[in-house]
From TrEMBL:
Pfam family for this entry, one: UTRA
PANTHER family linked to this entry: GNTR-FAMILY TRANSCRIPTIONAL REGULATOR (PTHR44846:SF17), MANNOSYL-D-GLYCERATE TRANSPORT/METABOLISM SYSTEM REPRESSOR MNGR-RELATED (PTHR44846)
Gene3D superfamilies for the chain: Chorismate lyase-like (3.40.1410.10), Winged helix-like DNA-binding domain superfamily/Winged helix DNA-binding domain (1.10.10.10)
Domain HTH gntR-type as annotated: residue spans: 11-78
Record's keyword annotation contains Transcription: yes
UniProt protein name: GntR family transcriptional regulator
UniProtKB keywords: DNA-binding, Transcription, Transcription regulation
Amino acid sequence: MGTTQLESVPEPKYLHLKTVLSEALDSEFSVGEILPNERDLAARFGVARATLRQALEQLELEGRLQRRRGVGTTVAPPRMGVSLGAGPHTWPGGSEDAWQPVDCTAAVPPAAVADALETGRDESVHIVRRSRVSQGRPVAAELLYVPQSSVSELSAIDAPSGAARARAVLRELRRVELERQENAVELGSAGADDAKELDRLPGAPVLVVTTRFVSAGRAAALSVATYRADTCRLTFGDAGGVEIHTGPEQRAS
């Protein structure tokens, strides 16, 4: 790789460097490729490593780069859209739902979840864990909290544990008439468990989508889905629900 010196520009040097790096990503690197180390990149562009880090951080926030534990900084794949729309409401686990059930346990949920479900704070609920994968990498993790009263016909004999139990809970939940669903979105940071499941560093930015499913005027389930902020973008429209778009075009959040 040759050496490229930056000319004097009125904007902050790291922003100009970000533009130069972005062009290099388009022309010299492919998705998943590991970038040279910071020392080599700083030497190539004739900048201090502190300036380089600022530029890399901006590109990571824009979804162009990913910092992977034990690997380094890699070129990120195109982002996917998390669409929140006003279309038909559906229960999770339907035929077009790409989430994969992982397991299901019965436990007392966090107090905030119990309040949202309007259950007692010491009342056990079904906790379905699901995951979402794109291009072989985890992009989202979900915890779906279902009060036992919402799936009162569930048989422990038919599906005693694991993913089979999760599918059974989802199947019984879809028998209930869905009145509406309420979505809320916030930007957060990955805790230790989310970071491990999503292959991110603790503290990495995540997009948290909370969905409250209402039936007969009461909360029948609550979903807390955590998306990697570097792989997803938030969109609003009439598509309804929360879905992931996997088209070839690049998307940014």
